[in-house]
Amino acid sequence: MARRRFSFATLARGVVFAGLALVFLFIGLVALYAVVRPVSTLMLGRMVVGKSYERTYVRLADIAPVAVASVIASEDDGFCQNDGVEWGALHEVISGAGKNGPSRGASTITMQTAKNLFLWPGRSAVRKGIEIGMALVLGKVWSKARTIEVYLNIAEWGDGVFGVEAAAQRYFHKRASQLDAREAALLATSLPNPIKRNAARPSPMQRILAARIVARANGAADRLDCLPQ
Fold it and tell me: Using CB atoms within 10 A as the burial measure, which of 38, 187, 199, 227 is most buried?
């Protein structure tokens, strides 16, 4: 019995130390990624298995404002106002108030950034809880400009295509700074399912969604007031 208690205590201490180590690793990476160009877990996964990927990191100033507005209008309408989590939409998903639920499972851009940088693919309540906590940290530590810049440079836009610059060149043969409203909207429609949705060959539904995003992004001045003009 004493040996069992000892083993359990040793295991418990090990779990606590492992948890603390992960917390400190997360804090260190948040500080590091505030100044260096990060890679996502999907990019790292491709490198581990020997697959290549396309990604050219660009500054926020080198991305067409209409592309920034389109992604915010599509993915996180309250990006400039929320603290990293959209609590009302999250409550709807948890309570089942909306049968269709908010897009992307109420994930804000900050939450998606946290997931792409630090967590594994797939869906689970555990991962969502960790994602929310990480998003709250990012919302406090990073500026909105840093968050959207990182997101636009790590988001997946096709098999092995990461970041808005690589996506703009792959699908429209131009720089991210040269995207027009229609192209930006089509790229935004691809984000929920980048493997199946091709911005250069949009489905009828994508075209409908893109038209709505163009209209919403056109009046998005208030959605961008937290970003450098």
Answer: 187
Beta carbons of 217 and 181 less than 8 angstroms apart:
yes
Q: Is the CB of residue 157 less than 8 Å from the CB of residue 191? A: yes
Each residue's pLDDT tens digit, 10-68: 777 777 777 788 888 889 999 999 999 999 999 999 999 999 999 999 999 999 999 99
Indicate the SS3 state at residue 54.
strand
* Nearest residue to 79 via CA among 68, 90, 95: 68
pTM higher than 0.90: no
Which value, to the nearest 10 degrees, does the dihedral of the CA atoms of residues 197, 202, 203, 209 take?
A: 90
Is 176 exposed, middle or buried, given 0-12, 13-18 or 19+ CB atoms closer than 10 A?
buried
CA dihedral sign, ordered 76, 82, 88, 94: positive
**162 DSSP assignment:** B
Number of Cβ atoms within 10 Å of the Cβ of 162: 25
State the amino acid at position 100 in one-letter form: N
